[in-house]
Amino acid sequence: MFSHRCSIVATLLCFWALGASANTFYLVRHAEKQPGGADPVLTECGQARAQALAAYLAEVKLDAVYSTAYQRTQQTAAAVATSQQLKVSLYDPRDTQTLLQQLAVHSQPVLIVGHSNTVPPLVTLLSGIAMAPLDEQDYSMVYRVDSSAQNPQVTLLRQAFSCDSVK
To answer: CA 20 to 30 Å from 22, out of 8, 30, 65, 151?
Structure first.
């Protein structure tokens, strides 16, 4: 969970005060991970899902890709970053003020890769719209947050990718 929270008004003022910024954020949970361990890598299915996410976002010109410091999030983000010739920037999900400052410098859409317990609260922070928690087995949800000052919106999308297709 986040140690710092700010209201939608504070979030929007933060973006406005720092000048032009991205109005569209894509947020996803990392892809399927190996069982056990403190910092597991992606499974074969997870690697395939990360590639599918890159294909899913291929038509979106991203300005940046952010990931937490865990291997599973970095591997998920790397597939998209590589396809868009971007580097993966790390963020601390417990320090939302710094993340908001990092996001405020972007003028195009941004991808943020996090965890089941950090993505919905971050969507809420960016939009002001309460989000239900993610199920521990849900890896397909893609949140699109349009955070324009007049009418913030969240669109919930699901990747069509299925792990059944991975041997």
So the answer is: 30
